[in-house]
Write a structure and sequence with these properties.
two-stranded antiparallel ribbon, mainly beta, six-stranded antiparallel beta sheet, Trefoil (Acidic Fibroblast Growth Factor, subunit A), 37% strand, 10% helix, 14 strands
Length: 172
């Protein structure tokens, strides 16, 4: 819970500094091209299964927090959204994205890693205070663990869901 609160405070800081035209640097955020990049690495962990999000070929879950670079992410934030860059793949240039883009986004669609120099809707996500991660491709599309992979799911009301849909972002 403390991690979520810290991230919400940092998101508010981004919004405030962006609206003021902040051009400098801090020890936490590095403003770049309308986004802000977290200055440290983090891992994403499923709250239900206690496994870590791995970004080797597809986005899946694995046991153990051994600091493997496939499990290590950098977060970039815009106003109201985040993108997740995998540290190992593509020298940090591969983003977590929806396979087929927003046009093909529907429940069951897997997440993949894709080279992107520019962020697009299919790799932008909202990290909600309840631990759910929502896609900007659709109001009701959330990330869910299904058979060891991260897929999109239409979960309706997140608080009523018994599915594996809540995640933690933990700094390394």
């Amino acid at each position: 819970m403390a991690t979520i609160i810290k991230l919400l405070i940092l998101a508010a800081y981004i919004i405030l500094t962006s609206s003021l035209g902040f051009k400098g640097y801090t020890s936490i955020w590095e403003p770049t091209n309308g986004t802000c990049k977290v200055d440290s690495y983090l891992v994403l962990k499923s709250m239900k299964s206690d496994k870590f999000v791995n970004g080797k070929d597809t986005i899946n879950l694995v046991w153990g927090r051994n600091f493997a670079l496939y499990r290590t992410w950098v977060v970039e934030a815009g106003i109201g959204w985040f993108v997740f860059r995998n540290v190992k793949n593509g020298k940090g240039r591969k983003l977590m994205s929806i396979k087929g883009g927003c046009k093909k986004a529907k429940p069951g669609t897997k997440l993949i890693l894709r080279y992107e120099d520019e962020t697009q809707e299919d790799n932008k996500f909202v990290f909600n205070s309840d631990g759910t991660i929502q896609s900007l491709c659709g109001k009701e599309l959330y990330l869910q663990v299904e058979n060891g992979h991260i897929v999109l799911a239409d979960i309706g009301e997140p608080s009523a869901s018994k599915k594996d849909i809540r995640f933690l972002m933990e700094p390394l």
